[in-house]
Amino acid sequence: MTVVFAVAIFAMLVDVFVDSAVSHTQNVTAAIIAVFGALVLALLALASPGTLEELSFGPFKAKWQHIKKLEDEVQSLQLAMLSLVTRYERSHLRKLVAGNQDGKVQYRPSMYQELERLHHLGYVKPKPESPGLVGMKERFESDPVTQFPLSTYVVLTAMGSKYLELYRNWTPKIEVSRQGDVTIAGKDFGRAEDWEDIVDYAMRSGWYDEPDHEDVDFARNTPEALRTPVALRTPGAPRTPDGTPQGAEGRKKEEEEVPPMGAVPGPDGTEFRVWAPNAAAVSVLGSFDGWATPHPMATEGRGNWAVRLDEAAPGDEYKYLVTASDAELRKNRELWKIDPYARRLTGSVGNAVIEAAAFDWGEQEWQTPALDDLVIYELHVGTFSGADGPPGRLSGLTERLDVLAGLGVTAIELMPVTEYAGERSWGYNPVSAFAVAGDYGTPDELRTLVREAHARGLAVLCDVVFNHFGPNDLDAGLRRFDGWYENDGDGIYFYNDERRDTGWGPRPDYGRPEVCRYLTDSALHWLREYRMDGLRWDGTAFIRSVGVGNEAGGGLGDGIPDGWRLMREVNGAIGTALPGRIRIAEDLQDEPALTTAAPVGAGFNSQWDAGFVNALRDALTPARDEDRDMRRVCEAVGHRIGGRTFARVIYTESHDDVARKHERRRLPEAICPESPRSWFAKKRSTLGAAAVLTAPGIPMIFQGQEYLEDTAFDDRARLDWATKRERHAGITQLYRDLIELRRNRGNTTAGLRGTGVETYHRNDTDKVIAFRRYPTEHPEDSTVVVLNFGNRAYPAYDLGFPREGTWHVRFNSDAQAYDSTFENAPSNDVRTRPGPRDGQPCTGTVGVGKYSAVILSQES
C-alpha cells in the first residue's frame, strides 16, 4: 500500500511539474529537472505522509495552482484511511485541540508508540523546546501515576486538525434523546436500552467502525445505562458472515442462532455440537452403544457439526472422530478428539463424559459480598486438605469450610480446578476450559463446595487460565483439532504465528470469533453452572501482550489488540448477565486501563498489586533495620490504581511469591531462614499482616499464612494442619482480630472499609509510619494505623491525629495473647491535645512495640 501510494504521488507530481515546465519554457532540461523534483517530493511524502501539508511553496504555489489540487488529493488519500487510527490515538488528537489542551492524561506503556505513530503520520509534532516524546517516555515510565497535559510534549499539526475535521464530516451525527431514542444523520433508529444498542444502530447506518463516546450527542438527563458502555470492539473487529459486528451485539445475535456447544443432554437423548471448520467429516462414538458405531454429524454452517443421539445419556463416555480435509493429512485422517466443551473427562488424554446439569442447590439466598467487605483466602485444592498420597479433593476442602468461616474471611479463591496434565499440578497447565479436574473430584462435588461455602457466608472465586493452554496433553484435544495448522502451529484454537508462544503453552487466537466465544462461554460456565462469585484471570499481561516480564515493571512486548477486546467482551458479558460478580486480573504491571470500565479499559473490578508485595517483603525481610525503605512502604500503602481504592488486591504471600519451584520462601522463612518460628519471624510477618489488612485495597492471605506456615508452596507439600495450627493458635487469633477490624464487624473501624487514605507520618530514622483510613463521605470517621518497622519500642511516641478527643486502641499486635514471646508493650488509649503535627490538627502520644502495629479509632 505504501509503495503504491508513493508511486501515485510521483505520477501526480510529474504531471504537474512537467506540464508547467514544458508549457512555460518549452525546455527539455526543465522537464528533466521537474521530474527529479517530483521524485524528491514523492520520497519525502513516503517518509512522512504529513510532509506535503507542512511544505510552503511560496510563489510557486501561487504560480502553479495544480499543487493545491495535488495537496488535496494527497490529503484525501491519507485521510480516507480513517480506520488506521485507533481509538486511543484519536483520543490523543482530541486532547490537543484548542480548548482541550489542559485536559490531563495518565501515561500508559503503549502511549509512546501511539504518539510515535501519529508523529510519523504527520498528525502531531514535538512541541518546540520540549523534551519531546522520548523525554515524555523517560519521565513517566518512572512515574506512571502522575497525570499531565499532553500538550506539554506534542502539538497538533494542520494535518491532524484536517483528520479530525474529516472524521467529523465522514461519520454520521448520532443524537440520543432523554428517553433514549436514537437519531443518526436525521434518521430514527428506535429506542436504545444500552450503549451496545447505540453501537449497533451506528454500524447499520454506515459507520465504518464503532463510534467513540464523544461522537454521541446525549440529551440532558439521558439514562446512565446509555452512557456506560459494557464492551468495546477495536478497529478491525471480526464480523459475522452477514456483516453483523462480532462484539457484544454480534455475539448476542450469534448465540441466538447457534445452540449450545458440547454434549447437551435432554429428555430425548443428547445433542452433540462441535466446531471443526476444516474437517471433511466428524462423527461421535461412545459407550452408549459400546463404541460400536461412528455416528456421522451434519454440518450446520460456520464450521459447526451436530447430531442428536437418543441412546446417549448422562454418565456415558464419548469422543469425536474428525476426518481431516487436507490431502497431505489424509494418511492421518482419523483424529480422535476430546470435546473442547466437555464438563468432565476420564483423564487429560481420556474420554469426555456426558454431564447432567441437575443439582440440588437448596433454597438459601445468597449475595456476593461487596468489594469493601472482601477478604480473600487463596488456596490450592490439592494441598489444602488430605494426607500424604493423592492430591486433596474438593470434598476435603468442604469439610474445612467451618475453619475458614471462623477465621472471618469472606471469600475463598481456588487456584485452577480445570483438568490438567500429569499427576499433580498447580492447575495453570489446563487441557480444557470447562472440565473439572478428576483428581479433585466431580462437577457435583464442586457444586457442593460452593453451596456449602455460601451457607457459611463464604464467596467462592476461581482462577481461570485464558492466556495459554497446556503445553502437555493437548494432542488429545485442542491442538490441531480439525487437522489444520500453519507454520508448524497448533491449529484453529491458537495463533499460528509469532503470537503463539507464551513460554508455558500456545496462546489462544483471540482474533477468531469462535475462540472468543469458547473463552466467553467458559467464563460464564463457571459463574452460572457452579454459581461462583467471581473469576481471577491468570496472567492477563500475556493476553494483551506478546511478551512481558513476570514482575511489576517487567516490560511489555508487542500489544495484542484482540486480547484487549476479549477481556472487554467477556467482562462486559459477565457484567450484563450476572451483575455483581467479581472480576480480578493478575497482571502485575500496574495498568490502570485493566480496572477501568469500557470503552477505555478492560472492565475488571480489581487487579493484583505486585508493587505492594514487593515493597512490603523488601521492608520486612532484611536483618538490619537501616535497610528498610519507609518511602517505598508509604508509597505502597497509599497507592491506588487509577485512583480507585479497591482496584487492587494486596498481599504479602501468594502461590507465586512463596513457591519452591521459583526458589521463593514463605515470609517467616524469608525473614529468618535458620529459624522461621523465631521471635523475629513472628513479629515481622504479623506486622506485614497488619499492613495488608489495613491498607487500601482488597486484602488477600495465602493458605496457612494465618498459622505461620513456613514451608514453601509446592503441589506435593500438604498443609501441616495437625501441629502448626495448634502451635500458633495465638497467631491465628491475631489474623482473626485483624480481619474483624478490617470488616468493621464491631462498628468501630469504618475507616478501614472507606475509600480515603492519607499516609501522613514517615520517620525514616526510627522506621515508623502512620496513616489514616476514612470513608470519603464521612472523613471524620477515621481509623489511624501506626506501623513500627524497627527493633525498638516507643512507650510515648508523638504523632499527629485528625481529630481531637479520645482515640481508643482497637488492636496491638505486641499483645502476649497472640504469642507468649511477644513483649506486651503498653499501648493505651490516646487523648489528643491542641497543636498541629504531621499535617493533622491535633497531637497525641501513642505507645507502640517493636515490629508492631497499633490501630486506633474514636467512638462513632
Write the layout of secondary structure elements.
Elements: H1 2-25, H2 28-47, H3 51-54, H4 59-63, H5 66-79, H6 87-95, E1 104-106, H7 111-121, E2 124-126, H8 132-141, E3 147-149, E4 154-156, H9 158-170, E5 174-176, E6 181-184, E7 187-191, H10 195-205, E8 216-218, H11 224-227, H12 248-257, E9 262-266, E10 269-275, E11 279-286, E12 295-296, E13 298-301, E14 304-309, E15 317-324, E16 334-337, E17 344-345, E18 352-353, E19 376-379, H13 381-384, H14 394-399, H15 401-407, E20 411-414, H16 443-455, E21 459-464, H17 513-529, E22 534-537, H18 541-544, H19 561-577, E23 582-585, E24 606-608, H20 610-620, H21 630-638, E25 648-650, H22 667-671, H23 679-692, E26 698-702, H24 724-727, H25 729-742, E27 756-763, E28 768-774, E29 783-788, E30 794-801, E31 806-812, E32 830-831, E33 833-837, E34 840-848, E35 853-857
Parallel strand pairs: 5-8, 19-20, 19-26, 20-21, 21-22, 22-23, 23-24, 24-25, 25-26
Antiparallel strand pairs: 1-3, 2-4, 5-6, 6-7, 9-10, 10-14, 11-12, 11-15, 13-14, 15-16, 15-18, 17-18, 27-28, 28-29, 29-35, 30-34, 31-32, 31-35, 33-34
